[in-house]
Amino acid sequence: MSQDKELEIQLQFLEEAKEYLDTIESVLLGLASAPIDSQKMDGILRAVHSVKGGAGMMGYGTLSHLTHRLEDSFKVLKAKKNAIAIENQLESLLLQGVDCLRQVLDINRQGNRIDSHWLETIANPVFDQLHEILGDPVADDASTMLGAEDGTNVTAMLFETEVEGCLARLEGVLADPEKPCLLEEVSIMAQELGGLGEMLQLEAFSQLCEDINHQLEAAPDQVEAIAQQALMVWRQSQALVLVGQLTHLPRRLEAREFQENEGEATEPGVAEEAILVGELETDQPELVGQGDEAYQEDQPDQPDQPDQPDQPDQPDQPDQQDQGEVNVFQWVDSNLHISSPSALSSPSALSSPPPLSSPPSPEPIFLRENNQEDSSKDPHQENTVRIPVRQLDRLNDLFGELTIERNGLSLQLGRLRTLVDNLSRRVKILEASNHKLRTSYDQIATPRGMTARQGDGETSKSDGLFLPSSVSSPAASDTSPASLAITVQGFDALEMDSYSDLHLLSREVMETIVQIEEVTSDLELTLDDTDSIAHELNKTAKQLQTNLTQVRMRPLSDLVGRFSRALRDLCVEHGKQVELKVVGKGTLIDRTILETLSDPLMHLLRNAFDHGIEDPSTRQAMGKPPKGTIEIKAIHRGNQTQLTLRDDGKGINLSKIRARAEEMGLDQELLASASDQELLSLIFEPGFSTADQVTDLSGRGVGMDVVRNNLKQIRGDIRVDTQPGWGTTFTLTVPFTLSVARILLVESNGMLLAFPIDVIQEMLMLKSQQILTTLGNEVINWQGKMVSLIRLKKWLKFYCRRRVTTLEETPSINEPTILIINQAEQLIGLCVDRSWGEREVTVRQVEGTLGLPDGFSGCTILGNGRVVPLVDPNAMVRWIISCQRTSNLESLSPQLCSTSKGFVEQQPPSIGIQPSTKDTILIIDDSINVRRMLALGLEKAGYIVEHAKDGQDGIEKLLRGLEVKAIICDIEMPRLDGYGFLTRVKVEPSLKTLPIIMLTSRSGSKHRQLAMTLGASAYFYKPYNERELLKTLNEIMVEDVLI
């Protein structure tokens, strides 16, 4: 097996061992305050035994040795639970033992050596103290530990779970045609089952496993035959244990079974029957207690030398194959389901013993019990598999790219639909023209035909134009009209049709138009089918997103499980009594979000313990119970997850916050007028602390700002509420998932913005009569509430050159709109210029040395590849309010007003200053070459150029939100000419002030006068003087700014 594969298996074991230690710790917490639960203690013993055995097989000798010592302590606790008084000291020592194992796990994960000094001074003293208090387990302890206090046969239970899982794994390997790593799998399984036999004091079973290992070493080239025979004998042993026939357990695997008939081990014949019967006739093993020796024999490579910890923990056992990597040492919690070989499924294999010397065969009993087990087996039980988190992250990233490409596909389908609709309209116009052409031709051709019929027999040369091309002399090649006329002389026009070249050409045009109509119809049908497939694709992608999101979810208990231990240690250290309550332990949270929440929640927990919860005497004096409560609650609200951490302590002293803020230099007038929420928000500022002294627990000036910063990384927010004397509540709001979000796409001041849908309560059309002014601020009346109005374009200004572009789609709402959001229990209205509706997009973080400005939390990529910033509405509102307050004060402490990263409000630039954006000019002309030539000169002059192919195209782009400084327009164009364009622009309120220069080949005064009357700003004719055009363009744009 490759070195990388070995390392991967070892890391998976260490991760699994960590979960076992978490389980052990959760049971130990509160052990001193409640009697020992036998079932929970059994779970601890199974977990610690799995870690010990697995560590030995993986080559982690120190971990196996320390786990063995901890296991001895648990054995004594289980056996003498009624005779041992568990106090806080013993509970603490047991928890410290678990901590030592955790440290060893971390060191092994990092690939480092165990420091012998740490082992002698830190780890061993803990286990020595446990040994002094509890002593060594003896044989009687082992018997008591494995006794069936509650009527449960522990041995049978382990064979139903542990052994069944191992054998099922081996069957899976044997069923694989390639049989990967079969030798390693059988060897590891023999060691694992042998260790279990020693723990259960099944000497015969342990000897059998040891014999199987010897057979593998002796004949490694016959591993498949040995594996088949071992599986059969292990199944037989399992059956015997389940029916209580421990005296008939086989002790060895006969080598001749597979040496003489390799490959036939699964079809036992008469020789096999004799062997099985012989096994039943062997001497019964003495089931006496072997004491602690039974537990020490399963790890022969246990470190004995003092310098053992300094040796690198390298595996000395062959690694497992891929299937064995998943939960190698986990106890399989499932009912017995045996896929037995023919030796067990066939009654004849065990039903033919000698009638006198052998006991009755247990096989019929085993088959009956097996059927009962199968009938009660849960048919919905599912298998699980472990995969690295990085693979989940990679899948998540790929799905994000899929979402971007899917949006791009939808955009292209929309464009194609628009093109096909345009084609259909033009085909209809062409069809109408075709009808007119046919009618006109009939009107022209019919009188001439009649003239030929009514003449005196002389046919003019022109009449020959209507003769059919197929009528000609076979022998002559002359196709002149005169010769054709002679051929049909004597026929009436009603007797023979006459066709001219014009008629043939018109017929060809008509047929082509019909063919174009058919192609257009086929395009529409194909596009309909493509739309249907795209709809199904979106539906499947949505299901994929839902399932992928569920795979990434972890319960809240994974995060808060370690909080109980931390809170217990704090209580012991500081003499407080605090109970931790968790509501919604099963609430699923994205793995990345859960990991990011770890530090913020721990900070809040420690602060609640230190600043919130009082000591028992103080609480009793205030009429409270001596034991305080900290409650963590998690619920889903739409596409967000809300977590609250509440304590019933003394709350936050607002006067203390105000005094501390004054010490740091904040203006007293500002602090006097600040609301409670604004004062509470100061605790999240860097360097702000109300602690009187610095301790290891709090008062270090860090923590709460870290909470907010960590939450900003996952687009989260935090809010605090307090009730002096009764407690404080922190509310954390985080998105349900980080990869995909539903947003509202809006525009403000020519900038596209993405607002998360979850924060928007309602959208309103901006109406001037609804706006009121109070104390210099605009407000609106919404549902009887006065809501502050913020115009985003006033704050989102750019004092640099930038290209203003817009989307091809027409806005859903093409007029100013108000977004109502809830910011810290306060409603705020944000005014935007226009909106394009809701979309599902992929969220991406912006990487670089410069952070995002205040108010933004990331970005998204639209289907056309355009990057749009993602707004954090709460942060943006806080920044705007901060700037508003700053503008009303002459001085403000720099510590608590950081506006350098945001868009700093300044006075608008004067006319002589460089414009805030590079001027955009729209060119409208039906000739692409004219547009290109004109654009070349304008771009050299520093302008940004947008193109439109006719007046209708130009109107549509302007109505979709394209912002330009001036327009250069032709007069003669299809669909909508220059005069029509002037008329449409001047009736639109938002466009009528745009300066328009007419550039045309019509130099007559009549055309010029009409254009100027309709509102043109200037008139040029082709060919034009580029210098004069640029000069005039600059002049009319300056005039427009002055106006």
Q: What can you see in these coordinates?
A:
- With 1043 residues, the protein is α/β, with parallel strands linked by helices.
- The chain folds into 6 domains: 143 residues, Four Helix Bundle (Hemerythrin (Met), subunit A) (Up-down Bundle); 184 residues, no CATH class; 159 residues; 182 residues, Heat Shock Protein 90 (2-Layer Sandwich); 157 residues, OB fold (Dihydrolipoamide Acetyltransferase, E2P); 123 residues, Rossmann fold.
- The protein has 33 helices and 23 strands.
- The chain has a 6-stranded mixed sheet with strand order 10-14-15-13-12-11.
- A hairpin with a 5-residue loop joins strand 17 and strand 18.
- Helix 3 packs across helix 6 and helix 7 packs antiparallel against helix 8.
- The chain starts with a helix and ends with a helix.
- 32% of the residues are buried.
- About 19% of the residues have low confidence.
